[in-house]
Design brief:
about 425 residues; three-stranded antiparallel β-sheet
Amino acid sequence: MSKKRQTITQGVRTAMPQPLIKITPPRRFGVEISNWKSAITSAENFDYPMRARLLDIYSDIMLDGHLTSVIEKRRSNVTSAPLVFLRKDGTQDERMTEMTRAPWFCDFVKNVLDAKFWGFSLFQFDIDRDGWPTCQMVRRKHVDPIRRQILGEQYDTQGPSFDEFFNLLFVGDPYDIGMLAKAARYVIYKNNDLGDWAEFAEIFGMPIREYTYDATDEDSRSRLLDDASSQGAAQVYIHPEGTGLNLIETTGKTGSLDVYKGLATYCDGEISKLFLGNTLTTDVGERGTQALGTVHKKGEDSIMRDDRQYVLGVLNYQLVDILSDMGFDVSGGVFAYEESEDVDLEKQLHIVQGLHAMGLSIDDEYLYEKFGVAKSKQKPREQKSDADDKRGVKERETEKDLADKRQRNVWQRFFDEGAKKQ
């Protein structure tokens, strides 16, 4: 039985005609650890899974700058390498390769990788008027990956099956809730920590202004209140003359500052290790050295290669089937990352100099091409042989000896004539 040609429509409730999926904004802010725990429990109730609240928490924690940074780093490691489509004989298919440069394809690759972070991604493909593919990602809050249903409202328990729609591509594990479930703990702790830190700075970071007035002069008190309220948000102490206030400060304010900073740094470090496998490629730290950074970079490169293989698996084992159904000739072809040589030119220069010192001859054309140096239009100077160099040295030494001998003869004659006159 063939699938109905039905498109998943997404939009606001007031749209006409009414879309299948009614989009609602995420509930942000005020997230506590208890909310995170209950949301995970609801999402992992496989009989009646409810992921909407957990996905709202994910949207909220993505406002964290450090978390966004490490995820974008994972994404850029995948999207920065150009993709090509290769035929059986190894030649590039220009039309298919051109498709990989399209903006929708780049977004598709990012959202494929995001399935690791969010748990899954669902796409629907179609063809535009020019014959090129189009792709839309179905909002995750309206997808039940376990029962394979599309939910019109985010808290619905029933909806049309995936089988009622054409050209759907599901990426991820239906039972996986994603890596953001692990990161949420640290972002929530850090947000609460930063709130306490800001309150600490407000209390102890600004001086307290003191105003006194005559207890019998109510007009003076009113004027002081007006002046105090118009002079900023610093703390104010207004009291009649003859009364006082003792401020008892807590000891170890510097230590308290270190506690807040240490907790925020710890949370950022755990997020970095979760997504990048290290901390030194995002933050130098107190013990950051080049050797440690190199080791951590190798671990990050391993994660990058794994991400690329993950994307290629989706492209070559799932996307090609959909493209074939849409009329594209993908038989016998594969998507692949274009090979690029990433070499440290400074290290390469040391290698070349070492080979030259060993007496190996290196082609000039290779050096021009390798280091990107423009070739001079002037005629190159003739290379002198070792024998010519030795002969030149001997000639220069002979000329110097003759000059020294002539100079000694001049001084010898001078002294001989002086002795004769005496």
